[in-house]
Amino acid sequence: MKKPRNPFKPKIKSRRFAELQEDSGFSDAQFETQETPIPWKAIGLATLLFTVGGILLALGILIKIGTITSEVWLARGTPFIVLGSIMFIPGAYHLYIAYYAYYKYPGYDFSLIPDWD
Question: How many Cβ atoms sit within 10 Å of the Cβ of residue 10?
């Protein structure tokens, strides 16, 4: 007498697999990454943002702490701090990436910096 099949177990079918060829269709050159060129325009823009943002940030802080006490400058401390921060932070970040990519730290590459070409 035949044993009833469990309906929850799939049927086992024997399959024949084709043997793989020696040539898998891949080459080693396919997996090598090309050296990314240095994005000089983007690094120049990051340097400009870093420098101008640092100057505006320093001016805003000096106005806020009272070192610059001219009547003309008193209301301009907060906008200088805000604009300086908006410019300084991305500039510093991209210069940080460029520095680490230039000295070939693991995980850093010039492809992480957006190119403006």
Answer: 7
